[in-house]
Structures are given as C-alpha cells and as structure tokens.
Amino acid sequence: MGRLRCLDGTSLAVVPVPSRDRGGTPFEVTLELRRDGDSFGAVGQRCGYFLAGLAERVAAARAEDSPQAARWPDPDDRFPDPSPDPAPEPELFAFRYRDRGDLASTGELRCTLRTSSTWIGPQEPDRAADGRWRVARRAVIDAWGAGGRGVRAVLTSAELARFLGDLLAEAERAGASYRDLLSRPPR
C-alpha cells in the first residue's frame, strides 16, 4: 500500500484491490483510498498497468543520463515529461470514480506537476545580480473523498517513485503483476 503524509497532517493510504476474472484470478487493480484508516473513496478501475508505466517513466527521468538531467540538476526535480499538454499544471495521472456507473462523488486521485521559484541571494532589489532563482518541480497529489473533502500531499520525484513502488509491490502481493507486460520493448 502506498502511504502519503498530507499537508493537513493526515495520512492517506492508497490500497490496491485486485480485480479478478471469472475464474478468480487477479489481473488488475482498483485503488481504495483510506484517510487516517477510514474509508475515503475508491478510484482507478483497472489502473495498475498505467501506474507501472508511470513508475518506469519516473525512474528513467531520475537517471543521470536522462534528457531531464540536463534541465534539472537535482534528481528530486526530475519527472517524466507529461503528454504534450500545454496546461500550466500537467497531470501525471487522474483517477476518478471507479466504474462508469458510479456517482462522481465516490472519490478522485490526481497527480499534477508544479514548478515553483524561490529567490536565493541578497535581499536588496538593486543587488539582483548577486542572487539567483531556485526553480523546483514537485508532484502534487490531490485526493477527494466520497464526502467531498480533499487532502493534498507534495512529493519529490524520489518520494513519488517510492510511493508508486509500494503500490505496485502491494498489487503484486495481491496477485496482479505487471513485470511481464512492462518488460516488453516498445513498438
């Protein structure tokens, strides 16, 4: 299970629940959200394969020889390039209600990339040449529960990689593995 410490001090557990075929064999997962141990929502019908692909892309982006390494010297700022989305806060994933027939109020889990800038250097405006901007990227995970209440966690790329790894390890313990699907070379 993936655990997140939210900005409001609460804990959000994201638990992969196996989806089973007619014979009872797990083949995919849905995510159950628990806030401080209480049920918070269910999202992402059959989303495990997508999360496994994202985990691989995060690991590749964090590598020293990745295209992101040239633009982002700090590995914690390196995230996979999102789809060609011109949005100021591109999404890495967005999972809403579990099934098409569910009400939209059964939960939401989404991850966006945000870039922030902090001025480092002298405080006097006329000495701007002696300072510099520190630009950082973070993954912001927002979760909305069935009751309409939301929580937020902010993660470095290392923390996002660990969170995804924990989710996928739990999915594998539940019987849904993505190793054979993701080890195939891209077409």
Provide structural commentary.
There is one protein chain. Strand 2 and strand 3 (26-35) form a beta hairpin. The chain is of the alpha+beta class. The chain has four helices and eight strands. Helix content is 22%, strand content 36%. The two termini are 31 Å apart. The strands form two sheets. Strands 1-2-3-4 form a four-stranded antiparallel sheet. A four-stranded antiparallel sheet has the order 5-6-7-8.
Kindly list the characteristics that best describe this protein.
187 residues, alpha+beta, 4-stranded antiparallel sheet, 36% strand
Short description:
The protein has 187 residues and is of the alpha+beta class. The protein is built from 4 helices and 8 strands; from the N terminus they run ββββααββββαα. The strands form 2 sheets. It has a 4-stranded antiparallel sheet with strand order 1-2-3-4.
Taking all Cα atoms into account, the compactness measure Rg is 19 Å
Spatial strand arrangement across the major sheet: 1-2-3-4
How many strands? 8
Tell me the span between the first and last alpha carbons: 31 Å
**How would you describe the shape?**
globular
Question: Mind describing the biggest β-sheet?
Answer: 4 strands, antiparallel
Return residue spans where pLDDT drops below 50 for at least 5 consecutive residues.
none
- Count of alpha and pi helical runs: 4
What is the H/E order? EEEEHHEEEEHH
Content of β-strand? 35-45%
Which assembly state applies to the chains in this document?
Answer: single chain
What structural class results from the helix and strand content?
alpha+beta
Helix content: 10-25%
- Averaging pLDDT over every residue, what do you get? 85
